[in-house]
Amino acid sequence: MKDRFISGYNDFVLPFVIGMSFILIYLVIGIIRVIIQLPAADRKKFFLSLINPKLWVINLKDIICDVLLHTKIWKRKPLLGYMHSSIAFGWFMLIVLGHIETWLFVPDRLSTFYYPVFFRFFVMETDHTLKGSFFFFLMDFFLLVVLSGVFLAMFKRIRSMMFGMRRTTRNQIPDRLAMYCLWAIFPVRLLAESFTAGIAGGSFLTRPMYWLFSNFLTNTYHILPTWWAYSTLLGTFFVLLPFTRYMHIPTEAFLIVLRNAGIKVSHPRKGYSIAQIYSCSNCGMCIDACPMMGQKKNLRFATVYFNRLLRRRNWARCEESADKCLMCGKCVAVCPVGVDSCNIKRSLRGLRAAPAPADYSYFTSYSLPEGVENSQEKVLYYAGCMTQLTPVISKAVAAVLDHAGVDWSFMDRDGGICCGRPLILAGRDERAQEMIRRNTELIRQSGATTLLLSCPICYKVFRENYDLKGIRIVHYTEYFDELVRLGRITLRNSGEKIVYHDPCELGRGCKVYRQPRRVLSAAGELVEAEKHHDESICCGGSLGSLTLSYEDRKDITLKALDNLMYASPERIVTACPLCLKTFSPYSPRKVSDFAEVVAQNMN
Amino acid sequence: MIDFGYGISPSSAINLDKFDRTRFEELAREEPDVLKCMACGSCAASCPTAGHSDMNLRRVILLLGRGREDEVLRMVSHCMLCGKCLIVCPRGINTRHLILSVTKIYQKK
To answer: Which of the ends of chain A has fewer CB neighbours closer than 10 A, N or C?
Structure first.
């Protein structure tokens, strides 16, 4: 294997070099901009993460799993996973192998960055070395892998259902152009390498193609034009990259590094968010996931289109989309890149919110009910606004606690202050601080060591936004599970067929899935809904949405009930007062709260 | 005035011509739901601020129609946006967004 040209250069590399230089400069500027726009504390976190060897290992693992192998898509939809990983991993291996070949056979050319890409054009085979045939085989193998992925990608545009996707993203013109370039790059590469296979050698793919072509084409005449075409396609693709969905290819790795550094969204279009929205691959998984998509008119509110609008700074439409969102978090759960769109939407709401002076001076008039203060009680139960609307829950909780002999008191028996989560969901974080402050005061005053909650909305905010060091914050599903396991309450199995609905804020929000199921399977025959755990469907009552109308909510509720009726249960059980309230009027089966079931089946 | 032996009590007489309703019309365009309110008072009854502040959504909607904007702004500034009124509203009015719109529209000077 040796150099074919003394100069090691041909004019056809120019389009590639131009495209590559453009995208590299663009990326460097982009990364610097993101880092500058990060708030000072986050910037410090980012730089600290770069010197942490433990994070390096995690970053590397995440980059290999998410960027190259797409393990998250494999788990959900294997064929789709193969399509993505074949292109990503195959292409990556082609680049790596090209460099290894150059390093092994013509090491002095390694400094020219186009040489490894067009390796087969610049070298000629001297004899059939074993090393050469090994690499030729690998190159042809990975080219075949990429080609199979490209073929699947083309087929996906025609029949996405085969890949388990009911709907895919509507592409716009730059996206389409880049997509056609991407589709063409690898077949053209195969042609180019086949025409040069007589000189540079080939393997199971390129060599037979070479012999085939030599029967009716003069191979040597086609060498340069196809290499020109290959280089031009690459160059065009790279120049189009920043304006298309394919920007996720270089951005995703950067996003992973930022995410692992523990940075959170603070502005919808600055710093971390830029890395987020440019990492959106527009794959469209979030379209099928979104509970609003049952109605075609809501399609435009899908997260993928929101990200696209935000990239173009179309504020008015972004705001409409953000206000509509239920914040159920399902699009985030299914997103293969993990774009934290809920928090981007939340911060956008805050940014676009009209200034509203709030007067919460009346909070001082709320106090703990008599007898709670200065008592030695250990468990403080905070029902929250939504449980106040569904007294059946607080009564059941009280019954269970009394039965188990728990030393407890009812913090907002005579009414209380909202936990602040609804305001945070609406993007009004500063206003929520007042509630957080007063509630913290009241909780501290009670001297309790455990704060028991029956509303997942409250639970999330108490866990994330309150500073209650020394006080254990626990949701009643977790607490009752503990009581059952400690033997403080025993349950009899009624044999009733029960389906459990994962409330968004409890499941996706706080990752509590196991405990309620464990308790319910002791109280009855637990069956699963069609979509459960991470993929459970929002009940439609979510406080996350600001503008969703009553009718649209009803549509979502019916869809969620359909999903729950999958295994024809006799009773639907949920662990959220809001879900209970939303489901009850439309449900074909009795809807009960988790606490009710426990209270009814206690021995 | 001729005394018929009965009359309209002056304290509850409302002269709609006295009030500037442009803002209310702007609100009604953005939130047509506000016209659906039948003043049942479910929102006020379920409100967690009841008894602690003068926030009363039923009254807010009533006063909006009468152009008593300062009172309304003071009342909605107490709102915690918890959404209880949204859930209990028998007319399916999106009360949370209504309150946000009220602050947005009436805040403009």
So the answer is: C
DSSP helix/strand/coil, A273 = helix
CATH hierarchy code of domain A490-600: 3.40.50
Note the ipTM here: 0.88
Yes or no: domain A361-482 corresponds to CATH 3.90.25.10:
no
Interface of A with B (CB under 8 A): 323, 353-360, 362-363, 365-366, 385-386, 388-389, 415-418, 420, 422-423, 426, 428, 435, 541, 543, 546-551, 578, 581-582
A39-80 pLDDT, tens digit each: 999 999 999 999 999 999 999 999 999 999 999 999 999 999
Contacts of A387 in chain B (CB under 8 A): none
| φ and ψ of A70, to 5 deg | 55, 50
Chain A interface includes B32 (CB < 8 A): no
**How many other C-beta atoms can be found within 10 angstroms of the C-beta atom of residue A458?**
28
pLDDT digits (tens, 9 = 90+) for A217-242: 877 888 999 999 999 999 999 999 99
Q: What are the residues whose beta carbons fall under 8 Å from the beta carbon of A337, sequence distance 6 or more?
A: A66, A248, A252, A255, A279, A280, A281
For CATH 1.10.1060.10, the residue range(s) in chain A are 264-352
Determine the residue of chain A that is closest to B101 in CA distance.
A354
Q: Say which amino acid occupies A101.
A: E
CB distance B49–A365 less than 8 Å? no
Tokens of A62: 């995440």
